[in-house]
């Protein structure tokens, strides 16, 4: 073998190595359902929904709120709160070490982010769970942030929207964690008594103490397609009852069919649909301005006479219906195919 034959293969390996490392990290993401590799900027254009199989990929809490809220006027609530290891808890690892690792990985202080902002111009408060932070588990700080967001919504009389993605209560905080179920439920009861709308959006996945409290207490409980929602996981249930669960059990479509959630909304329609629902829940009409409707209507003698006839005539009063009932009736009537009805 000549000296040239020894050099050429080595140079080829170096060139191949340079080619591989020249591709920047973070440009591609693999769909967990169909396993198609997607170009990240293209995936972002589709709201992180796989264009191949329509699977809704998980979003970080900050990315979700940035996508959901209008770009102007966003303000984070209680951003300075951090969890504390009051119990000096330790399992296979110290709790404070788990917190440090989660904070480093997610660049967040805890598993919930709350923001004041607006949706298509209407002010609201929105919160989102960070599933990457210890499985989105709910501890004392998560509960405190949620309650502060609810209290701010109550004080400003604006809606509260929650995007839940959690494995449940945080076991490392024991009773401090379990107490948040009652604490958040009490805050939501105050919103209910005051007539302030609260919409819960269930994303993949929602389990445990979060699903048993704030996630299912919305005036309207909405789910993303194919989201896994329940209390105990399907494997735990199968091991307990020793039976095979139905296909799609605990998926949002299964829950909708059995009346556990009110509706399923595709991510691309989420902002528009929730904006419309919130306007109706607050008794505000939907106003669409176009070229044909920019001029004020003209007042004529005929219109005045018609209005007088209405005033002088008999008025039939209908029994008032709640805003939530009206929204649900309209939504289901528009979504159900002709000839079908939704039992409930």
Write the layout of secondary structure elements.
Elements (H helix, E strand, L loop, with lengths): L2 H19 L6 E3 L6 E3 H6 L15 H8 L6 E3 L17 H12 L5 E8 L2 E8 L10 H17 L3 E7 L7 H21 L3 E9 L1 H4 L8 E4 L10 H8 L10 H6 L5 E2 L5 H12 L19 H12 L10 H13 L9
Parallel strand pairs: 5-6, 6-7, 7-8, 8-9
Antiparallel strand pairs: 1-2, 3-4, 4-5
Helix pairs in contact: 5-6
Pathway: Lipid metabolism; malonyl-CoA biosynthesis; malonyl-CoA from acetyl-CoA: step 1/1
Cofactor: Zn(2+)
EC number: 2.1.3.15
Classify the fold: give the CATH topology of the largest domain: 2-enoyl-CoA Hydratase, Chain A, domain 1
Rg calc: 26 Å
The order of strands across the largest sheet is 3-4-5-6-7-8-9
Shape: globular
Number of helices: 12
Order of helical and strand elements = HEEHHEHEEHEHEHEHHEHHH
Proportion in helices: 40-55%
End-to-end CA span: 82 Å
How many E strands?
Answer: 9
Architecture of the largest domain in CATH?
Alpha-Beta Complex
CATH class category of the largest domain: Alpha Beta
The profile of the biggest β sheet is: 7 strands, mixed
How many separate domains make up the residues? 2
Superfamily at the CATH H level of the largest domain?
A: 2-enoyl-CoA Hydratase, Chain A, domain 1
Q: Structural class of the secondary structure composition?
A: alpha/beta
Strand residues, percent: 5-15%
Low confidence ranges: 289-299, 310-320, 337-344
Average pLDDT rating: 85
């Amino acid at each position: 073998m000549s000296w040239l034959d020894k050099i050429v293969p080595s140079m080829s390996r170096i060139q191949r190595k340079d080619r591989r490392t020249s591709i920047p990290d973070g440009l591609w993401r693999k769909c967990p359902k169909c396993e198609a590799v997607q170009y990240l900027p293209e995936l972002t254009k589709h709201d992180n929904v796989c264009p191949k199989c329509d699977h809704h990929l998980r979003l970080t809490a900050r990315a979700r709120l940035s996508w959901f809220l209008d770009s102007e006027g966003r303000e984070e609530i209680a951003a300075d709160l951090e969890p504390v290891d009051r119990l000096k808890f330790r399992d296979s690892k110290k709790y404070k070490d788990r917190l440090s690792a989660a904070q480093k990985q997610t660049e967040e202080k805890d598993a919930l982010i709350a923001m004041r902002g607006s949706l298509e111009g209407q002010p609201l408060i929105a919160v989102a769970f960070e599933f990457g932070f210890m499985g989105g588990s709910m501890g004392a700080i998560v509960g405190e942030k949620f309650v502060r967001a609810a209290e701010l919504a109550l004080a400003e009389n604006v809606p509260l929207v929650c995007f839940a993605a959690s494995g449940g209560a945080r076991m490392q905080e024991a009773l401090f964690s379990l107490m948040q179920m009652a604490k958040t439920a009490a805050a939501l009861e105050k919103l209910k008594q005051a007539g302030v709308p609260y919409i819960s959006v269930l994303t993949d996945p929602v389990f445990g103490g979060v699903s048993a409290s704030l996630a299912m207490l919305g005036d309207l409980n909405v789910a993303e397609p194919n989201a896994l929602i329940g209390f105990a996981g399907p494997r735990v249930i199968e091991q307990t009852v020793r039976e095979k669960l139905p296909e799609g059990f605990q998926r949002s479509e299964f829950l909708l069919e059995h009346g556990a959630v009110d509706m399923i909304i595709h991510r691309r329609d989420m902002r528009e649909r929730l904006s419309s629902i919130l306007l109706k829940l607050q008794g505000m009409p939907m106003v669409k301005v176009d070229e044909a409707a920019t001029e004020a209507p003209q007042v004529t003698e005929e219109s005045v006479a018609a209005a007088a006839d209405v005033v002088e005539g008999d008025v039939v009063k209908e029994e008032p219906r709640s805003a939530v009932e009206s929204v649900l009736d309209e939504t289901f009537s528009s979504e159900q195919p002709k000839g079908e009805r939704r039992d409930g």
